[in-house]
Amino acid sequence: MRAGDGPTKNVADREVSEYVVDTPLRAPAPGLFEVGRRPRFGHYLVEAWRRRSFAFTLAGYRLVGGLLQNRLGVLWIVLKPLFTAVIYGTIFGAVLSDDARPDDWVPYLITGVFIFEYFTGCFTGGSRAITGNAKLVQSLGFPRILLPVSVVAEQAMRIVPIMLLLGILLLVFGIPISWSWLWVIPILAMMSVFNLGVALIVGRMSVWVRDVQQFIPTINRVLFYASAIFFQVDKVFADNPVMLTIAHLVPTYDFIALVRGAMLVAHPAPALAVVAAPIWTLLAIGIGVVYFWRAEARYGLSE
């Protein structure tokens, strides 16, 4: 018989077992959440704000990591939307009639393509915010809302060089720089909030039904054509006020119209778009945050 075996060891094991079973569980330490239980909404938002640096750090590492895999690196940030504008410009430039195209069609087109690129990046990335980080969700305890936030933060980092390229291209095509261009900053800030709300909604939906991710490209394509990227909606639906109103209420069109109104003097934003954009933003972020938070306790368990 080895040292430590026998009645003395059995008594010690029984005492430890009784201690483990009978000792009540303590409340989680500050900043930690009990697995399987949803935290209070206010505390959840406070904790997410306290850990916001995690989201921005994750966004930065993900952006750099993705670019380092390509030989052209950071150039792909601007090359992708530029190639998209060239392809659609070539195709629809030959198909559309002169009445549907504005005189400054190239600046009109590239502005729409570049701004829509910001939305589609957040929309697509948001759908994979939880499902694409399954190991991270299962391994670490943190407010899961930070994952969609990191997606929008990454896309916000991408849009900066894209907007710089847009400004250069507009100058090349004869669009004069003006103080109104500064309006782009608050417009994109508002669009970022809207994109976050959308990312939160689709992020939770993709956890519930993975098939949602299969519809994302189709939805992106429908919104692309509905956002008047390459045609003037006011001219196309001039004789149909109902369709014109519906077109002016498409969220992505509203933000594109606001940016065009700030950078292209010949294309002021419709009054309905000016009103609708902040309303869409409030609805998206309000519904998105609550909808995402209500499933907070199930994200780690459902993966």
Number of domains: 1
Poorly predicted regions are 7-25
What gap, in angstroms, lies between the N and C termini? 47 Å
Number of helices: 14
Largest sheet: none
Count of beta strands: 0
Structural category is mainly alpha
Mean pLDDT: 82
Outline type: globular
Structure description:
The chain has helices spanning 7-22, 41-50, 52-68, 75-95, 105-127, 134-139, 146-172, 184-208, 212-226, 233-236, 241-248, 251-263, 271-293, 299-302. Helix 5 packs antiparallel against helix 7, helix 5 (105-127) packs antiparallel against helix 9 (212-226) and helix 8 runs parallel beside helix 13 (271-293). The chain has one domain (51-302). Mean pLDDT is 82; it is low at 7-25. It has 303 residues and is mainly alpha-helical. It is globular. The relative contact order is 0.13.
Summarize the structure in short:
Helices cover 70% and strands 0% of the residues. It is mainly alpha-helical.
SSE topology:
Layout: H1 7-22, H2 41-50, H3 52-68, H4 75-95, H5 105-127, H6 134-139, H7 146-172, H8 184-208, H9 212-226, H10 233-236, H11 241-248, H12 251-263, H13 271-293, H14 299-302
Helix pairs in contact: 3-7, 4-5, 5-7, 5-8, 5-9, 5-12, 7-8, 8-12, 8-13, 12-13
Features:
303 residues; mainly alpha; 14 helices; 70% helix; 0% strand; globular
